[in-house]
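Weekend entry, working from home. Most of the wet-lab plans are on hold until the incubator is repaired, so I used the time to fold the two sequences that have been sitting in the queue since the last round of cloning. Logging both here for the record. First:
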Amino acid sequence: MKQIAVFIFVAVLLVTGAIYFGFKQSSGTFVPPKGTVPMRIAKETTIVTEPLLPDGESIDFYAVIDQLCSANADSEENGFREIVRSVGRNIYHAHRGVSDKTWKMLCENLGLSSNEPPSLRYLPLRDFLYDAIEESAEVTSQFQTDGIRIFDKTLLEQSFQILFSFDKQKDWEQIPIENLELLERWVTEMAPAISAVAEALKKPLYVIPPTGRLSENPMFQEIEFFKEQIDAVDFPDFLFSIRAQQEIIQMFSHRCLYRRIKNDAEYDREHWDDVLSMFHLARHVRRQSFPESLQFANGFEKMAVHQATELLKAGRFDADKLRRCLADLESLPDLLNLTAYWDYQRFGWLKNISEFPRRGPIVFKLRTLPLPANLPLVTAEEDKKTIQQVNKQVEEVIRVYRNVPFDWNIVAEIMNAEFDELQGKPGKQMLFQTNPALGDPCLSQRSFRLEYRCGDYERRV
């Protein structure tokens, strides 16, 4: 019975990964089905034996993940730490800034003082344009009590209009001279800070630490749907740190844009150096452990490729320069290193497995979806059927979770073996050899592959 329960769990696990919504659990404490065996603390199951939660009986997997993501963040060799020390909290872009609380937490993780001023002046281009417009309008800057700046919507719209005009290559000749002068001023005044960032990106170590718990992020506290989902699966918060990486990629992208507008061979070498900085950032982000790292890294890499393509299309690089460019690209950090990424995924699932007997299906983020009331007539019926099918599958998954007892130790051992194989270590084969009972056909390798389909799950159950 326990083996069958494990098989169903894995199928359900994959379905939850595909659906990835939140489930609003019914009121009252979740009571696991009779026969449920909680996960014990052991190397084969929990991998680590500390730190413990206050109950002294469970691993604090949030702390494990937080430590994994923050390791060496305070090292002098951490390039991101050097960037924050050089340019300060203005690295947080899009005018929104960062609250005093979050800034202090980030600095603590990086081993920096939150009160120490940056060594260099830096303003994102958006803020630079806004300040110029605000100054010409003789308006005084306003700030919230938490340190976040308040922006006038009209002035903000004007600054974005200028920024967007730089991106439209076909309209470059029509850009007002005063706007081009603003862009040139930004490039000139921010040059020392951007150069410092470029040097920091050349460091081999680059650690982006989290800033507190995702459940404490004000963005999710304001929306009930997100609040319920995030509270159910509380993980370290990387949203603010990712915003910093977005500004870093943009600072180089905007400077590349300026050089493309100038279209002067004199800037080609510096232009290429900025492209390399973009590639360096993409590779650094790709090597982070948090789940969204690959998605952001791919986006950054595409931006770097675009800027490289535009530069080479100018046709000013001879064979020797092209060979040097190729050598530069080959010297970049490795494209992929998923060790930390898989460790994050493993401990994330172990956290959910550990919490399931106490909290129930909500830890796997299941939810039946409400039918939208205002669907377009053309797609309303088709979308309604799709949502109903999804809800049916989710309800069946929830039913299994609430009625089938699991031995969570078996679940954890087989899942760990799967992650070991992903990291090139002995995995399921060794596990099945040492424990033949787990090699039953219902626990075959096919049951654990990510391409498992919902329809196959329904047929087997």
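Second, folded right after the first finished:
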Amino acid sequence: MNFYKAQESARKQSRRLVALFCVAVVVLILLTNTLLIAIAWFSDFGNVASINKVNLEGLSPLAATLKIADSFGWAKIAVITATISIVIIVATWSKWSSLSSGGHVVAESLGGRIVRPDSKDPRERRLLNVVEEMALAASMAVPSVFVLDNEQGVNAFAAGVSADDAVVAVSQGAMYQLNREQLQGVVAHEFSHILNGDMRMNIRILATLHGLMMINEFGRVLIHMGMGSGRRRHYFGSSSRNDKNGGAIFLIAAGAAIWVLGCAGQFFGAVIKAAVSRQREYLADASAVQFTRNPTGIAGALRVIGGYGLKSRIDNPHAYEVGHMFFCNAFHSKVFATHPPLDDRIERLMPNWSGQYLDSTADAELGDELGEELSGGLSELHASGAMGFAGTVSTDPDIDKDKPIEFEASSESGLAQGSGCSDGLDPASSADVKSVSSADGKQTKANINIQLLLQRVHNADEAQGIFFAFIDRPSVIAGDWPEVLSALNLSQKLDLLRAAIPSLKQLDKTAYAAFRQSFIDAVRSDGKRSIAEWLAYEMFRNPCDIHFGLAKAPKLKYKTLKSVKDHYQVVLTKFVQMGTQDESKYQTAVRASQDASGLELDENCYENTVSSKSFTNACYELKRAYPLLKPRIIKGLLAAAHADEDFCETEQQLIAILAAIWDLPLPAFLESENAA
């Protein structure tokens, strides 16, 4: 399954949703004006909304409508139209602004409690490990995890605008009723929503429906204004009975009409939401199987829900508003059901399903799991391709703390111009085993327990320490991380950094700002920039800055290959220059990249000097490319790397780094390309 095509499909559905929303708004405005004119035509409310009864005999329907509108007054129609539009736009924008702060806003609105990375509760530990595994398998930063403590139904959701601010939340019922395999299926389903681009679409649906809902509220306000006006006139008296009641009655009637129209708008909006959501759930189920390679996991979770008394119900009053985000229907409704029928989903996953549901076995299996490593085999997840960092980079002393750290290879880096493609290996970083002392004092080799290291970074101090150790800078909190990291390959190091991000988010804003500034100061200390420094800074800066409100997720900007050509040329030039000084090899690499990416590139840019600033800016701009462009970009770089039939360690490092910067789940991309 191609996740990038799925993202583009979700984006197209978002555009259709916006179009339908605009149509709904226009229809609401027309109906509101029509009703108010009808009220004024058939009633007499004094001077407030009186309309001259004009002769309509012999006029066509269109001419009669225009004449009635003219009698009512175009200025009044303009005021009504502007008022309705402003109410909807302001409400939608306000909701979007609040939700764009991160997925934690949605989780907290549903009573969610964040699960601390260092939690000792066995069920929470199992949940954290499952989320961690899925994130590392997708080469993503590990998202924050929430539990809906008061919800006994079996359900879950992912929320956020981008992968950087995503959270995964599960109900207490899911945590208690699902075993490890079933929980993996549910979490994998939610991760597919992140990778498929569904989260952003879900937030847009939530914001637009909130805008339509405010029409109801506006109608209620008018009703209360009318009732209040009538009471005030009655209390103070009036010279004219018609004046006393006319304005109040008109406001009440107008408010009631707008309220009814708002209900109609909400009805059709809910139908649209349900229709869009149902189709995305089938895709997410299939993606979950791709992640876990185990259809019985997610199918088992669905079968447990089918046999569980409370099903997947969520009792929070906000459940209806965000029902399309959940794993299963959060409330019972056939017309507004946001998910396909449970049996249909199970049958798609298990064609030979007998129709029997399952009882929960979670409690019975939890005891057995506590005696085992919850994520066994994780140490072998990236056991091949030991990659280390080599070299230093340019010595520009200025690093803007709000911008990416700039990086540029120098002739002293081990990636020297003209030296061919360096293996980029530090002897100490290429081992997958660690030396330990045996009882007789001799050095032996022992397999590294990655799971224990992952548990260590669940502590906030350890999480900060590993980032300092990763860039080889002294720090009081680095502890023994420098020695530990020396025995790991690059992929394992990146896994630990991703797993440390939730712990950094547990800091308060002041503590995080202090860590961030200390990290920047450490990078500045020797006036050089290493690839490791650049990568580590970008890895925590993106998700953490968004979490603490210091930045917003970058808006997508580039829709076509032509629009990214200049930025890609800069990145490709530096990418190839780091491996060769042979201009003919450069041209061969560019041609290979051109064929793979579909971009028309300049083959004569080898002599161009690519500064650290231009390279960094180009990398950051490419992060803003639309989903279907990103695999083309990576595919072009991979083709350039393979052009000389030697995909060396340096090129592997840079591919891994750029994938991390661009929020690309590289393994999923490679599988998608193979499956295409």
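Plan for Monday: verify the second prediction. The chain has four domains: 3-102+202-274, 105-194+283-349, 421-539, 561-675.
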